[in-house]
Amino acid sequence: MSGREIAGVPRRGARGASWLFTALKLLAAANIFAMAMLTFLDVIGRYVFSAPIQGTFEIVGLLLGVVAFSALPLVTWERSHITVDLFDNFFRGSFRKAQQLIVLIASAVTIAFFAERLYAAALDEAQANFVTEDLGISRAPLIYGLSGFSVITVLLLLVMIWRFLTGRLAVKPPSGHHGSADENAP
Asked: How many Å apart are CA 109 and CA 98, to the nearest integer?
């Protein structure tokens, strides 16, 4: 990524997107910090004062969902998912381009399916007045939020597909390829 880009977006078009990426990074970081602090305080309370914090496991689990789904758009946009590159050397030229387009499209469809299923689960939980076991709080708002993060990811994938088709998103070289920074920039 060059100095003129923010999250793979050239600066001239990044104003609208950079605030979103910054907000997602801050949200993920704040939730990771909250999980760490809550766990630390629970351990201190449990072993020093014999007074654990009620619902720690439940809260950490909910925060973990926020971390994972708020980071999903960031990881997707940066194209930095964990990948298995067993067959990277077999795909060259137009085959590699087709493979990456298929992966982008399949990713968009899959995440859209997740978004729909999360939304349906949130509706079900809201209608059934389902609450968590320890704290008795509704998970429905959280699940709506996770669905929203999935929708953001799908929208970013659609932009990436468009950029890929118009030649503004480069074909990723095989992971063993160590070209110049400009050659690997999206």
From this structure: 16
